[in-house]
């Protein structure tokens, strides 16, 4: 008798999770539809940030090595 009722809670759970995730993600969609000067803005911000510092380069290398070791296993 219990095995006949098992699909019902799982079906309800799947619908609940899908509905919740859809509404959660929908809240974070971008409201910006046009970006006519995006390239100029990005170039200006990158110029303000400057080049990579030594610590940022070391962190990037450590991250890439860790990622490669993770992929290898």
How would you describe this structure to a colleague?
There is one protein chain. By secondary structure, the protein is mainly α. Helices cover 75% and strands 0% of the residues. The radius of gyration is 24 Å and the shape is flat. It starts with a helix and ends with a helix.
Q: State the end-to-end CA separation.
A: 45 Å
Order of helices and strands: HHHH
Q: Report the uncertain regions.
A: none
What coarse outline follows from CA principal-axis ratios? flat
Q: Which bin fits the share of residues in helices?
A: over 70%
**Mean pLDDT across every amino acid position:** 86
Largest sheet: none
Strand content: under 5%
Cα radius of gyration in angstroms: 24 Å
Strand-pairing-aware structural class: mainly alpha
Count of alpha and pi helical runs: 4
The total beta strand count reads 0
Short précis:
The chain has 73 residues and is an all-alpha fold. The chain has helices at 2-5, 7-26, 38-49, 54-72. The model has no long low-confidence stretch (mean pLDDT 86).
Fold topology:
Blueprint: H1 2-5, H2 7-26, H3 38-49, H4 54-72
Characteristic key phrases:
mainly alpha, 4 helices, 73 residues, flat
